[in-house]
Write a structure and sequence with these properties.
The chain has nine helices and no strands. By secondary structure, it is an all-alpha fold.
Length: 194
């Protein structure tokens, strides 16, 4: 579950590519379309959904979700951004810090929204019993000990990401270049496969 959220955050960070490549156009901020009023009203009227939603919120509280996301991004984001910035040597160091800070602030800003949408999805998908078992574990001393160690895990993962991120980028470019003509992409320090 946490992996899916991390991947969503990483996909959002890939949107920084045009800025790194010198594309100064700024897309307008987007907002998610509102949830269908009928579905929302049905969920609000369903006592079972309300109980499941309450359990899902307890689960997120027991996970210390905001702190996990903040710590994980503080560990991983500089590694991911550094890999991309090195490809564009004309990027000034001041821009690198501004980009890192902005990305961290954005993740921090959006994490409660991610949590809220995920809570609603969990309340729809999982049974009350399944959610109760999750809460029972993560609120237990063992569950809390595991969550206390989560920031250390993020630190350990940042070392792994230094190895994996360039490989991931190279594989992504290889797949992309099979689908499009990569010769039309902005040039970086490294040459793209064609």
């Amino acid at each position: 579950m946490k992996t899916g959220l991390v991947l969503a955050a990483m996909v959002a960070m890939l949107g920084c590519g045009p800025a790194l490549a010198g594309d100064s156009s700024r897309p307008e901020p987007t907002t998610a379309p509102p949830v269908a009023a009928q579905a929302e009203a049905a969920d609000a009227a369903d006592p079972g959904f309300q109980r499941r939603e309450t359990l899902a919120r307890r689960y997120f509280a027991a996970l210390h979700f905001q702190a996990i996301m903040d710590n994980m991004m503080k560990s991983l984001l500089p590694v991911l951004l550094d890999s991309e910035i090195k490809r564009y040597p004309s990027v000034p160091p001041k821009f690198r810090q501004a980009l890192t800070d902005s990305a961290l602030e954005s993740v921090s800003d959006i994490t409660p929204l991610i949590a809220d949408e995920t809570v609603k999805a969990m309340a729809k998908l999982y049974t009350e019993e399944e959610l109760a078992k999750l809460v029972e574990f993560y609120e237990s001393p063992t569950g809390q000990t595991i969550m206390t160690k989560a920031p250390q895990m993020s630190g350990l993962m940042s070392g792994s990401m230094r190895v994996v991120a360039p490989q991931m980028r190279d594989r992504m470019m290889a797949h992309l270049c099979k689908k499009i003509d990569c010769r039309s992409l902005p040039k970086s320090v490294e040459s793209h496969p064609s």
